[in-house]
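FAQ: What does a multi-protein file look like?

Like this. Sequence, then tokens, then the next protein.
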Amino acid sequence: MADALLANVAAAPRPTAAELVNGSDLLVIAHRGLSSRFPENTLPAFTEALPFKPDFIELDYRHTSDGVPIVIHDAKLDRTTNSVSLLGAKEIVIGEKKAAELKPLDAGTWFDAKFAGTYLPTLDESLDAILAGSCCMVERKDGDAKTLVELLHKKQVAARCIVQAFDWDFIADVRKLDPSIVTGLLGKDPLDAEKLAKAREIGSEVVGWRESDLNAASIAAAHAAGFKVWSYTVDKPERARELAAAGLDGLITNKADLARDWLASPR
């Protein structure tokens, strides 16, 4: 059954990131994959999200010491790998290790013993898994813009990705290298006129904002400034419906398997 579902997903028409962002539908974005049920930012979390047809699957990446983009959220290895037991030290920073040194790490057992043997994927591998049936929201945690843009061009997948970051200077660099890449500016605290003005200078299509800092007025102000508004990370049905009613354009959630049912239900 799972194979049949994935085959159907793979055979479905594949819109570009721009087409999705410019459409009128409220988009569902799987945060770090199907991370409520699988270890975040791993290939199982990405592939198991596909049958639920999220519009985008989000990931985070960082660079190793030899410049390889590795998919992981935290700057340090402790929380989501067995680095302490395997490497014999706490608080090892990803950027201090080469990609080959990270490959033996187990990135699944922390979540559940049945995921033992799951490893930290490269950004290259993760794009292959996600783009087999969805678009990718690529969140840069560290690393230069040139490396990312060159990878997207080499794989010929730039049109099916949105690049986002809390570092707005990085997004400005991406836009200078390739203004056709859809980009998102992440933030928190009040989404006020000053932030929107700075966002307009950069020229991104999307602002991705912390859900607790969004309301109908701030969403309307962002729309008036020409932006789509996405919210992170929304895991409660009532909040999802409230933001949808306020005009939200994209729902970033750990529960992409449930989000469409929330939005279709009146309560």
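And here is the next protein:
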Amino acid sequence: MRNAPNLAIVGFGVGDLAIGLGAVTIVLGVIFAGLAAPVHRLFMGGRWRSAPA
């Protein structure tokens, strides 16, 4: 009978971990997307390379 509450606590901990990792992934994605435009503009002059003929 004591195992069920402990299992529920662990389950909530795993759920919180999944939510936290999702939030970190979203923040890192926004950071990388925000850095992509300035780096592209810096190294490629804002233009995509033309395809080889």
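Q: Is there any per-entry metadata?
A: Some entries carry free-text notes. For the entry above: The mean pLDDT is 86.
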